[in-house]
Amino acid sequence: MSSTHTDVETRIHQLSASVINKIAAGEVIERPASVVKELLENSVDALSTRIEVDIEQGGAELIRIVDDGEGIHPDDIELSIASHATSKIADADDLFSVRTMGFRGEALASISEVSHFRLRTKQRGQQVGTEMEVNGGIVKEPKACGCPEGTQIEVRQLFCNTPVRRKFLKTQATEFGHISEQFTRVALANPNLHMVLRHNGKTVYELPATHRFIERLELFYGSELAQNLIWVEAEHEGTRLWGYVAHPSQSKSTRKGQYLFLNGRWIQDRSLQHALGEGYRGLVMIGRQPIAFLFLDLNPELVDVNVHPTKSEVRFRDSQVLYRLMLSTLRNKFLSMDLDSKLSVDRAQPEASGPKSEPREMQRELVSWAKNQLDEQKGHGSLFEAVSKLAGPEVGPPPSQPSVDQLPSESSFGGTSGTELPNKPGGVTHIESIEAGEHPASASAEIRAMQIHDCYLVVESTDGLTVIDQHALHERIMYEQLRRRILSGGVEVQKLLIPLTVELSSREASTLLDQEDLLKELGLHIQEFGGSTIALTGYPTLLAKADPKSLLRDIVDLLESSGRKLERRDLIDELLHMMSCKAAIKAGQRLTFEEMESLLAQRHLCDDHHHCPHGRPTALKLSRDELDRQFGRLG
Prior knowledge:
Layout: H1 7-10, H2 17-28, H3 32-45, E1 50-56, E2 62-67, H4 107-113, E3 116-122, E4 129-135, E5 138-139, E6 143-145, E7 150-156, H5 163-167, H6 172-189, E8 194-199, E9 202-207, H7 213-226, E10 229-236, E11 239-246, E12 251-252, E13 258-262, E14 265-267, H8 270-279, E15 289-290, E16 292-297, E17 303-304, E18 315-316, H9 319-335, H10 358-376, H11 383-391, E19 429-435, E20 446-452, E21 456-461, E22 464-469, H12 470-487, E23 493-503, H13 506-514, H14 516-521, E24 525-530, E25 533-540, H15 548-563, H16 568-583, H17 593-601, E26 619-623, H18 624-630
Parallel strand pairs: 1-8, 13-16
Antiparallel strand pairs: 1-2, 2-7, 3-4, 3-7, 4-5, 4-6, 8-9, 10-11, 11-16, 12-15, 13-14, 17-18, 19-20, 20-21, 21-22, 22-26, 23-25, 24-25
């Protein structure tokens, strides 16, 4: 019996310390953000009051963290980079009463194994500090140095001796986005710390220490979100839940706005995330996720934090108690509140008195005049024709195929403007006739249609009837128009005289800026405005109905969830799906005569008007034969 291995290769042997540390580095140090997380946690454990983080080139070239904590004793400095050496636990029983952020004793050993590492430290009362360097696992003799009290750690050329890992690093903006997220988690959990984050010499965050948690949230996420946060607090058998949750009107398309901390440590827990979602059930739209910043203070003996190398997942002794505590806290809070959303006033057209209100008065006069013109035509006239009379002879006739671009703005949907026709009882809008057909060849056939439930259009055809989902159909039309224009390089962009600013987290801003060229192809022009604020300077004219701020936030969520996993072509397609969905007519919007006429006329300009971009059907048909059969007319 032969073997493909020699006896030497199949024998068990002890791995070297260097290989062990590289394996540990692969488990703990996934990317530069992992280094930042470990070093920040060490600084917090050192009872620091100020922590400064300097990053260069997304952390690939330099990570420097300086704190004013307790420092390391000179006799322990060599042990600090030894594997499984720690001051935070002494025996196995201590694992069930961990009160510090770190405890494994692997971080510095793993980091120094795969980088050019330098540590400087000085304890209070000492005359000089101590410095030690490690180059790719090769340790140099510690030496005396001058340095302030505390600890300074520099990590240069991360993964210098593991080029495969270095090759898998993403762009600067992407890697810094991950670093910023780790910084955010520590900063939110420790508002009493003065924290600074710089990237390539530029200050991204300067966070003064504060005793008011809401002030730190406002610095990170802006005043708009901070003003819509709700304080919650509850206690049960020694376990305390406290923090802020967002008003249901504030939501995201992913769970990235959910921060849960256990005894000051950021964690992920499916059970608690599910409880959070259940607390908002019926309050946020399906597919949207609530925003929350919640803290659990729990006896360390009731939780096992030693179940994951990065300590991001934990195991509770009784998770059901915590589940019920969170769910009941949120539900009781929401039941005691008035959760009606506030009306958002368009700042571009404020109600004012005096000369400044003239444009609004002119707009009202135009609407009133158009209403009278339509009344004179008994509902059969065209709004375009009415406006043409006012505008003068230079305005040409309406196009034979109305463009979706010309649909009235979203603010007119469901309103009481003069362009809206009288409605039948039961919320049904009836159109006497529409010059459109099931096929272009039959465009002259007379078709009757009506809107029901402000969601569906019921259209009569020569061979039966068709029920159309107005949102799904408009979404398909928008998708194909956007796609055609992008492929031809002819996306029409509406330039903004005054850029629209959007406050994002630093991670979200970095993600958007990393895809600036791709977004420009889609007609979305963005610029860095300062800090984590993005300025939108232009957007596609086809997306006039979409809320630009909401659109950018949803694009961020999409890029973060799938942007780095998809090919460029697939990513563009995903973005087109999302943009067309945001800009399309919504279910629940009552349509005017012109809006329904334009929407139905556009069906046959699509390659596939039978399905929306997500694959849902846009229409359901019921034949005349089936109607006759159901009513017993066949015999």
